[in-house]
Amino acid sequence: MTFRAKLLLISVLTVSGAVALVTGVVSVRTRHTFEGIDQLRQAALLDQFQRELAAQGEDLERRLQRVAASDNVARMEAEAARPEPDLARFVYEAQSLAESSGLDYLDIAGENSVIVSSAHWPARFGYPNEWGAGAKAALTRVAAPDGFVVGLACARPAGKRLRVLAARRVDASFLSLLGHAPGQRALLWFSPNEVIDANGPVAQPQLLNTLVERARTAGARTAGTVQWDRDRASAEAFLVLPLQRDGQWLGALLAGTSLRDQVRLEQSILWTGVVVGGSGILLGVLLGWWSSERVSRPVEKLAAGARAVAAGDWSARVDVTSHDEIGDLARAFNQMTAELVQQRDRAIQAERVAAWRELARRLAHELKNPLFPLQITVENLQRARDQHADQFDEVFRESTSTLLAELANLKIIVGRFSDFAKMPPPQFERIDLNELVRGVAKLFEAQCKPELELSADDVHLDADPDQVARALRNLVLNALDAMPAGGTVRIRTERLGATARLQVSDAGEGLTTEECERLFTPYYTTKRHGTGLGLAIVQSVVSDHRGAISVASTPGRGSTFTIDLPIERIA
Q: Are residues 415 and 434 located together in one domain of the fold?
């Protein structure tokens, strides 16, 4: 991945991550805030219900007290006190009393709680009352013609023989008395199929059964959420209050809060985050692109300039278009390349001077050896002619032989220097390294017969056969010179991936570390008679083939020269 792509990715991830984090934190904080507010409102609604229940109970107790003290009940008490009372004539007395007192349910019972008169169920005359109540108003189940209902009930004695029981039904009209905030409502759960609110029966009451059952099992307030349909906005949070009396389960009161506003706010926050995030990502892409252009393009130019310098173009320059750190870096690069060119020119000049001095020194040294015998021979000729004329012919013949031999040495020396100076560029062709080694080895069979360890793999490569053969011959000659007392020359070939390896080993005296470091320097030699050009020529051939040459040697254990050449030609 490029630096520009990384910079763009970092910008996008930073912006989108920050927006996502803020959106998530705001959503969670909003949800927790809403939940806390809803719980407080639900608890307040339940507390209000209990206060309203207490107020309604006190009102019921007052109404019942007036009924118990009324003249109609007093007459019924007097009739009940007779030896043979006739209470049947009071069967409908409770209805008028209930209507005048505003009571939903009213029973007047005698001994053994047998009903004497019932306002809501006259047919229960003579049957025992099934919903006994105490002096303090409390919730209880009241028997009615359509089944048991939940009501607020209490009882009062009306003399020694009668007892008055009254109740007010807890239903939708009762729930309408409870004030509540928008989005809130109170529900009464009587059975799995009977749930009401201030507007009447509730649809899909079975969805509340699990929540109510949890409250019934726990016997305490329980919170939960019900989703009425697939729309998340239909969800409603409930706080359930179990309704019990003396351990008897009567039902449950549910304080519900609609989550529609909360869900819509969360969706609004989410969409706002998406819009802001998208805008931030777009802005991040633009900023990242702009900053990457400001940073990566100059860096790419610097990299291109560095590659040009590495390829040998030391005149490469980078345009300076800014005055920041990148511009300083570009100016430093240009200054560096300028200094490199100057240093290269000075180094080349110094190297040329040193090379000419070394060449002159070596040439003078090499020419001095044959010139001294030439001088002595000429002086002998002059002396013989002047002092021994009769022996001049014999001295002349001997002297001319010496002159010709030394002139031949001079020719050889000059030829070697000329060959080194005129190394031609290699002419590449596909060669078989093993066959080339066999051909060179045949040239030395009369002297040493080298041992060959040729690779079993195919070792074909692109190279100049004449120059590689010349380099191998020089290495073999160098090995023979290293073993004046005789020894074994070993030649080995090997293929290592995309490289062909050629090794020449001898069993001579070996070289020191310092000698190994200077061995390939032109005109350096460890021999008494040598120009120091043999290994320099080998290194030149290897360098022209884009290869590498090295030597490993231990004094007293011989030396091994290793040449690594690429299989395919490198332009």
A: no
